[in-house]
Amino acid sequence: MDHRLALIGFGEAASTFARAAGWGADALAFDIAPARAAVMRDCGVRIAGSAADLAGASLVLSLVTADEAEQVARDYAPALAPGALWCDMNSVAPQTKRAAAQAVEAAGGRYVDVAVLAPVDPARMAVPLLLAGPEAAAAEALLRDAGFVNTSLVGAEVGRASAIKMIRSVMVKGLEALTAEMMLGAEAAGVTAEVLASLDASERPRPWAEKAAYNLERMTTHGLRRAAEMEESAKTLAALGIEPIMTVGTVRRQREQAGKPFERKTV
Question: Most buried among 8, 117, 196, 241, using CB within 10 Å?
Answer without folding.
Answer: 8
